[in-house]
């Protein structure tokens, strides 16, 4: 598979939406120069930054990475059929904040429910900028430990522990352990 060009894809979508770089930055609530840096591939966005920018375009990560993926009406899925929403935005040198893998089951938009298999490598963090979006989300930790921060509340969840909250509360996920953490999560309506 060839490397996904995040910068070019963002530029195509921005132009198709009739927005200047400054207008998109304002709509997304990010610094103006960040859009230019990403579009020219001089900067690789974090997951939270990319989500925020795509929110300014009114689309999710699934649409960004798999715009033409048809819903084939499948009911059952194997791990090989999950949509990898994030692996293509990381480059090999991006190891400081750790790697996060988000794999989606089926077509979230058609079903109005997003189910993800999430993996957080040691040190992985969704970013200092807390995530906020319309909807509700929950998940169960199936391996390792994951710190979940919701508003001013924080807890390290271990295998078997779960979370459920309104996604309008600022939230963040970090692996503070020394082994990968895995989560099965759901969000409605779909966010990514």
UniProtKB/TrEMBL annotation:
CDD domains: cupin_XRE_C, HTH_XRE. SMART domains: HTH_XRE. It comes from the Bacteria. GO terms for cellular component: cytosol. Residues 10-64 form the HTH cro/C1-type domain. GO terms for molecular function: DNA binding; DNA-binding transcription factor activity. Keywords: DNA-binding. The keyword rRNA-binding does not apply. InterPro entries: Cro/C1-type_HTH, Cupin_2, Lambda_DNA-bd_dom_sf, RmlC-like_jellyroll, RmlC_Cupin_sf, TransReg_Diox_bact_type. This is Cupin domain-containing protein.
